[in-house]
Write a structure and sequence with these properties.
300 residues, alpha/beta, Purple Acid Phosphatase, chain A, domain 2, seven-stranded mixed sheet, six-stranded mixed sheet, 25% helix, 26% strand, globular
Length: 300
């Protein structure tokens, strides 16, 4: 962790849903491919001086997509980073997604339950939220480990902040995606009860959302290159969020910077109107407090 030791600030990039749209989706629903945007997101992340990268799942659309992924995120560059992945629903395989064998070989920790990533004062807990692809024993074993990891972080004087990451969001206003009840039932309350908990990141819905729940941030960040989805707006929303962005949301990733006092998150996005990099959202968190610094004015 070279940069953490030199700068006393842990720097982490979080990106989700880098999969290319499936041919059937492109033909049936005219969904976009976003190849250029996906490459630009990857180059920005890989060029930065980071202590770690967390992928929120749906790495590729189908089993045939690994060659394209390796062109965008070259293994030679990822090998120099702490790169950890949450398993997404595409990554579990299926009729349209193909075999999960290569994902399982590349990221065995992602299918083995809870992952713990320590970056200086920041502890990241990565979850497998694919309950339908797990046995009941595996699911509840992961929950037990998650509760234990939160308790251990609370007692560890070297850990100042905890964030959690998984694929399926417990809160979302996605038009075609419901909030994940299994994640909400199992993981939200233990997370809220941890005094060092700061933010819970998820993907799956291809856009950007942020909710403030009991002084914690619940973030949907599915803007890594998948076809962008629509959301519910205004009084049709399931839950009021901190932003109500116009559809389609920009492709983006989140830069997390944690020091002893606080965690700051900056959402770097590509403005689809002119191709320029913009700051979509920016906020800071410490115990019992969320401070919005700026937010994008692109609202519905």
């Amino acid at each position: 962790m070279l940069y953490t030791s030199l700068m006393q600030t842990a720097r982490l990039a979080i990106v989700g849903d880098t999969q290319r749209v499936l041919p059937v989706e492109r033909l049936a629903f005219l969904r976009e491919t976003n190849d250029d945007g996906r490459r630009r997101i990857a180059r920005a992340i890989l060029a930065d001086q980071l202590d770690g990268i967390v992928h929120l799942g749906d790495v590729i659309g189908s089993a045939s997509g690994w060659g394209r992924f390796d062109q965008v995120y070259p293994p030679s560059e990822l090998s120099n980073k702490q790169f950890q992945v949450c398993r997404g629903n595409h990554d579990c395989g299926g009729l349209w997604f193909g075999s999960p064998r290569e994902f399982n070989q590349r990221f065995p920790k992602a299918v083995a339950g809870l992952q713990v990533l320590d970056l200086g004062v920041l502890r990241v807990l990565l979850l497998d939220t694919n309950k339908k692809s797990m046995s009941e024993e595996q699911w509840y074993s992961q929950l037990t480990h998650f509760q234990g990891a939160l308790a251990a972080a609370s007692a560890d004087i070297k850990v100042n902040h905890v964030i959690a990451a998984g694929h399926h969001p417990p809160f979302t206003n996605g038009r075609w995606h419901q909030p994940c009840q299994a994640v909400f039932n199992s993981f939200v309350r233990p997370f809220l009860e941890c005094p060092k908990a700061r933010a819970f990141f998820a993907g799956h819905v291809h856009g950007y959302e942020r909710f403030a729940i009991e002084e914690r941030s619940f973030v949907v960040s599915g803007g890594g290159g998948g076809a962008r989805f629509n959301h519910l707006h205004g009084d049709k929303r399931r839950l009021p969020g901190e932003l109500d962005l116009t559809d389609p949301n920009p492709l983006h990733y989140v830069l997390v910077e944690a020091n002893a006092d606080s965690v700051t998150c900056t959402v770097r996005a590509i403005d689809h109107r002119n191709g320029e990099w913009v700051e979509l959202d920016h906020w800071s968190m410490r115990q019992g407090e969320i401070t919005p610094v700026t937010s994008c004015h692109q609202t519905s």
